[in-house]
Design brief:
about 300 residues; mainly beta; 2 domains; seven-stranded mixed beta sheet; four-stranded antiparallel beta sheet; elongated
Length: about 300
């Protein structure tokens, strides 16, 4: 197999990223993609058993206490999911196949040992092809899998069967039960397989015993901080209006917020009349040390 690339992309109206940590509101759309490519040796060999015959993405979500969010839970929270694969054997191939040309060129240059002055192309712009029914879940994980083998030796013998690349994309959309720091753990697997020819050959038989001749696998993780500061989805403003911030307006009452990583400030606005007495009480966690600063209407 020539190689495998993978990436994650988070889409949420109020989300932002700082390295491997995302901050934002609930129900983020988490796109997980993997693309595997054959090297020139296998692409140029007209044998139906030299194929990328399996791709798999698995994802597990845990809260800050390392409790696994059960994808089969439906009363306290839900986790939506969907899957696509490409190339897809339909008339819509040409609608999106060109989106992968940069990735194929990347693999080709890498195989030839050329100096590559550009980063791995971004999968986030790939158009979504037709849905492929290969996604499932259990009590700890959601996984998407694409797998295929030649249907008939005679059917595939007349042309090089091997696709130079194949990819799958998994969309996971968790509805988190509470504001917290959630870890998203992802594993990806790609397989190139061969098939041994059986003794009985016929146009309607499948004379193969197929197995993985080569497997590439990897795993990675990142954190997503779900915030609902002062009861509003997402993070409160981190700065005053004079510094570009848009503080949320609050009334008399009790509010909760969330700090983590680089998110170290929440700014709110409120109205008060001249001579009115204002009382604040801040209750930080025992492991934190917070301070409160009050600004006048001129932001002094």
């Amino acid at each position: 197999m020539g190689g495998m690339v993978y990436e994650a992309r988070v889409v949420q109206a109020s989300a932002s990223f700082d390295g491997t940590i995302g901050y934002g509101g609930n129900s983020p759309q988490i796109y997980l993609g993997v693309l595997a490519s054959l090297n020139n040796k296998f692409v140029g060999t007209p044998e139906p058993w030299y194929n990328i015959h399996k791709l798999r993405i698995s994802v597990t979500i845990r809260d800050s206490s390392q409790n696994v969010l059960n994808p089969q839970e439906s009363t306290k929270y839900t986790i939506g999911y969907n899957m696509w694969d490409s190339p897809y054997s339909s008339a819509t191939d040409q609608d999106y196949a060109s989106e992968f040309q940069d990735l194929v060129k990347y693999f080709t240059d890498l195989e030839l040992g050329l100096v590559i002055p550009y980063p791995i192309p971004d999968l986030s712009s790939v158009k979504l092809p037709q849905q492929f029914n290969g996604v499932a879940k259990d009590t700890s994980s959601i996984w998407a899998q694409w797998a295929t083998y030649p249907d008939s030796l005679f059917q595939a013998q007349s042309f090089p069967y091997s696709d130079p690349y194949h990819s799958i994309k998994l969309l996971v959309q968790p509805n988190f039960p509470k504001p917290d720091v959630y870890s998203i753990s992802v594993s990806v697997v790609g397989e190139r397989g061969s098939c041994d020819i059986g003794l009985i050959l016929g146009p309607t038989t499948k004379p193969y015993v197929c197995s993985a001749d080569e497997t590439l696998s990897s795993s990675y993780s990142f954190n997503y901080v779900y915030e609902a500061d002062a009861g509003v989805d997402g993070d409160a403003s981190n700065s005053l209006p004079k510094d570009g911030g848009t503080p949320r307006s609050i009334l008399h009452g009790s509010y909760t917020g969330f700090f983590y990583g680089t998110d170290t400030a929440d700014v709110y606005s409120f109205s008060a009349s001249a001579g009115e007495k204002i009382v604040f009480s801040v209750t930080p966690p025992t492991s934190a040390d917070f301070s409160l600063t009050i600004y006048d209407p001129s932001q002094n």
